[in-house]
Automatic annotation (TrEMBL):
The chain crosses the membrane at residues 31-51, 91-115, 127-150, 162-180, 201-223, 260-281. Residues 91-281 form the ABC transmembrane type-1 domain. Keywords: Cell membrane, Membrane, Transmembrane, Transmembrane helix, Transport. It is found in: Cell membrane. This is Carbohydrate ABC transporter permease.
Amino acid sequence: MSTLSTLPTAQPGTDRILKRRRIRRTWGQPWLYLPLAGALLLMIAPFLWMLSGSFKPEADIRSVPPVLLPTAPTIANYGELFSTLDFTSMFANSVIVALAVTAGNLIFCSMLGYALAKLEFRGQRAVFLLVLGTLMIPGLVTFVPLYVLVSNMQLTGSMLGLILPFLAGPFGVFLMRQFISTLPDELIDAARVDGCRELAIFGRIILPLTKPALATLGIITFLGSWNNFLWPLVVAQNESQYTLPVGLALASSGQSFTRFGILLAGAVVVLLPVMIVFLLFQRQFIAGIATTGLK
C-alpha cells in the first residue's frame, strides 16, 4: 500500500477558513495600532513641544493661540544660554555628582542586596523590613533632617555634601536583593567549597550575573541625580557648585518674567546626556526590569 494514502487530507473549505482568518487578522491590526500610536504621540508631545520651542523666538512661545512650529527658527536661545551660564563648570558639576552617586549606589546597594538575599545573619529580616519601610517614606519627609545632619557635619557648600547623602538608596537595595535572590544557591556553595571568600564570590560571581539589574539601577540613579534640583539648590552655597538644573532655573528667571526660550533650550541640553545613557544601556535596562523578582 502506498504511504501517500495514509497521509491526512485537508477537509473541504479549510483553505477558505484560513484565508478568512488571515484577512480578519490583517484588518484587525490597524485598530490595535491606532490607540498605541495615539498613546505614543501623547507621551512624546511634550518633548516635541520642548524641542520646537527651543528654536522659537520669545514672541512665538507666548503667542495665543500657540504656534506649533517656529515662524522664524533661531538658535539665539542656545547662544544666550551658553553666554549667560558658566556652562562648562555646571556641566562638570552635574557629571561628577551624577557619576559619583551612581557608582556609590551600584557598589553599596549590590553589596547589601547580596547580604540580604544570600547571607544568613541575625536580624536579616528586620533589616529588610527597615529597607522596605524606608522605601515607603517620601523624600520630602527626610529632607529637613538630612539637611540638618549635613549642616552639622559642615558639608554644606561642598561637593561632598551633594554626593554623600545619596550614595545608597532603599530602592536600589530592594532591586538588587530581588534580582540576586533569583540566582541559584549552588553557584555560591560551589565557590565556598573551592575556598572563595565572600568578597571574592561577590566580585567574581554575583556582579557578572547581575549586569541587567546593575544597568537598570544605574540608569534610574543617574537620571534622578542628574535632574535633582532642590537639594543642590539648598546645599550649594555659590555659583561654582551649581549643577545644570539649578543654573538653568536661575538663568531663565528674568526681573519681571521667565524667559521660556532659554528654559526650553536648557531642557534640551539637560535631556541629551540622559537619552545617550539610556540608548547605550536600554537592552540591559529592559532585561533587568523584566527579570527582577522572578524566581
